[in-house]
Structure prediction request, 522 residues.
Amino acid sequence: MLIRHTRPSDVKPSEITPRAVFADRRRFLATAAVAGATAVLSPLLAGPAVAGRKLDGITKSPFSTDEELTDYKSVTTYNNFYEFGAGKDDPVENSADFEPRPWTVAVEGEVAKPGVYDLDDLIRPHALEERIYRMRCVEAWSMVIPWVGVPLGDVIKRLEPTSKARFVAFDTLYDPKRMPGQQRAILDWPYREGLRMDEAMHPLTILAVGLYGEELPNQNGAPIRLVVPWKYGFKGIKSIVRISFQEAMPPTSWNIATPHEYGFYANVNPNVDHPRWSQARERRIGEFFKRETLMFNGYGEEVAHLYTGMDLAKFY
Amino acid sequence: MTPEQRLRWIVKPLVFVLCLMPLAWLAWRAVTGDLGANPIEATNRFLGDWALRFLLITLTVTPATRLTGQAVFMRFRRMLGLFAFAYAVLHVSSYVGLDQFFAWAEIWADIVKRTYITVGMATLLMLIPLAATSTKGMIKRLGAARWKALHRLVYPAAIGAVVHFYMMVKADVREPLIYAGVLAVLLGYRVVAAWRRGAKPARRTV
Prediction:
């Protein structure tokens, strides 16, 4: 249940420690620990690296979960972003020099207002919201991430898609010089994703431009990425440069790579296994015991109706 | 100090300690919290990597001996093989005890349903008799010919280990392909050597 009735025991979003504060605290602890001649230092105490630019005017959202957040360091050092390498720690290492500004997004296809939009022109007309979502990776691990973004539906309405627009397609930047992972054909670049129009218009679906109250770090898909919390993480295409409205279902990268393992819908579903592993349980990063995976990643109440009558084992 | 004494009291213990280094490194990283956001996955992968590496290192001993004529290499084969086994056991233990936390039903389902885990478990099963018969006493009991025949299981085991790795990778198969390449050279050497000796079957030792 996402539309919450606040209980006195709830951690209010306003009580979440701002990152600067806890970063400082950690730095202090690290110094104290060194001073205390502690030889064995936890990296948790060592403090995260660079802080991104703070985003202002973020409003809270009733769609946020009150589950415990995955720590900033894990969110920003354990990433799948093959454009910067296939290892989990490759993106943070190889994206350090990536410059996500200036940035434009091409809007194309069945839409009344096509064009090449500056990122700010695309996002700024809308109020930034914090959306604390569960993120379930297809690899059976999960996180809770405080995204900052705007509802994709609001952006789409402003762009005025035509009646022919049944799907929205997204492309990641293709620039092997800036994205060294693209120098090898691990995937058929550029990375492509897509949503059915009703999925794209759903209020849970957002275009994220930040996390933890700051601009999106490069390794998390700077400067703009998709977040669809009831779908596996790979649907959340990063560093978007093209949004295209079309009548036909767009091809998607992982489906092109291994069609029997990754479908177009990629809804989180504990009852439909990946051919190589079970999807029934997941490891929440930071926890030892696995959790049961929830249907639609726990967002069934909001989104199950989108798939009424569909065989989800067939349309995985 | 005779060369034999030097080998027994200095070189062998040194190699033994070297073989323990990956484990020490893993322990250090675990204690200092350097295993990243998913330490269980990191531990499991690390142990699997080293099990495979030690298998390949073990398979290098015979060609190295033959190519250099230095019989002394053979003195390390058992130790290296047992380290391969030890890392493989630790790798599987980390899967059973850390990753799945003894959820036997899930583990069994994995073994039956997930081909790469089936292959991995079969690989471990093949290594068990090799470790169990690694003592001088067992060689005597089995007789050299039967012992040798049994220990050829290391070839399918090594192939199984590489296939297991290859099958679990999502997209970037470069790393498992490197291991596959090394294994191909090591097995290829044996095929060529056996073929060359084809006329003299009495001397066939692989």
Summary: The radius of gyration of chain B is 19 Å. The interface with chain A takes residues 31-34, 36-38, 40-41, 100-101, 103, 106, 109-110, 113-116, 167-168, 170-172, 174 of chain B (CB under 8 Å). DSSP finds nine helices and no strands in chain B.
